[in-house]
UniProtKB/TrEMBL annotation:
It comes from Pseudocitrobacter cyperus. Residues 1-141 form the DUF8093 domain. This is DUF8093 domain-containing protein. InterPro entries: DUF8093. It comes from the Bacteria.
Length: 269
């Protein structure tokens, strides 16, 4: 468990998932550290004080008004997200110890923005964005806690459209028409091979779980699901080809490859 200056200390994007709730952080800091006067307000000091780990004999409680003012300044910096306490994320995460979560595509979000001060959230998110520019996006948070906000949560990919790249496919179809000229008596576009190598993009968005799923199954899916931003979009390139098909009598059929359902779940790996 370590205390960091958000603006000046070396912190990587992945560390932001380990930020401790401000109320708990202030309590734990007073248990772990004590204030000592520094010489002439040295660099890294807090109003002329520095934090040192307790040796078991010291207490943060003080009747010195200057001490109390320094602790108040420290508490204020924690409330504003300028000082943060980091602790490795525990398996038994109840959603109250760690205010932030990293989604599947590396975005940081607050799990309950109604609980925390807006300035605290803003400062953390701005700093995270700067760290991402320097170090790249982090891997997603893995936890038994399932966050659910207005913008982020478990869900499924729902198909909203298919982009068939009309101009490009016209050229492909012209080639197919030329090669099928020898099939006398067969109308063009009457068989799958006439559409061979045409392409499309299946467009899907991340959507909340359906209200028609019963609570038991919804809980099972939520616990296994990745966490993404609702409305996040993905495009999956597909090509029309003949491929194996266990349901076809001949063992093969013409269909879009790769095969993607119009509605599909994405589970944690």
């Amino acid at each position: 468990m370590e205390l960091y200056d958000l603006l000046n200390d070396y912190i990587r994007p992945k560390d932001f998932e380990n930020i401790i709730d401000p109320l708990q952080a202030k309590r734990r800091i007073k248990e772990i550290f004590h204030l000592e006067k520094s010489l002439g307000g040295m660099v890294g000091s807090l109003n002329g004080y520095i934090l040192k780990r307790n040796d078991g004999l010291r207490s943060y409680y003080s009747y010195d008004l200057y001490d109390q003012s320094s602790w108040s300044k420290l508490d204020s910096d924690i409330d504003r997200g300028l000082l943060i306490l980091l602790d490795l994320r525990r398996d038994a995460d109840d959603g109250y110890r760690y205010p932030f979560f990293i989604s599947e595509n590396g975005e940081l979000f607050c799990v309950n923005d109604a609980v925390y001060d807006s300035l605290f959230i803003k400062n953390i998110l701005i700093s995270f964005s700067m760290k991402v520019l320097a170090y790249g996006k982090p891997s997603p948070t893995r936890s038994n806690f399932v966050p659910l906000t207005r913008e982020y949560g478990p869900g499924y990919w729902q198909t909203t459209d298919n982009d068939y790249h009309a101009l490009l496919n016209v050229g492909v179809m012209a080639i197919n028409r030329a090669t099928s000229m020898g099939d006398e008596g067969r109308p063009f576009m009457s068989e799958g091979k006439d559409f061979m190598n045409t392409i499309r993009d299946k467009i899907q968005i991340w959507s909340p779980l359906s209200e028609y799923i019963d609570n038991e199954n919804k809980e099972i899916i939520s616990n296994r699901s990745v966490i993404r931003r609702y409305g996040e979009q993905r495009e999956i390139p597909q090509r029309y080809l003949e491929s194996d098909d266990v349901w076809a009598a001949e063992g093969k059929s013409w269909h879009w490859i790769p095969t993607i359902s119009d509605e599909c779940y994405e589970f944690k790996k």
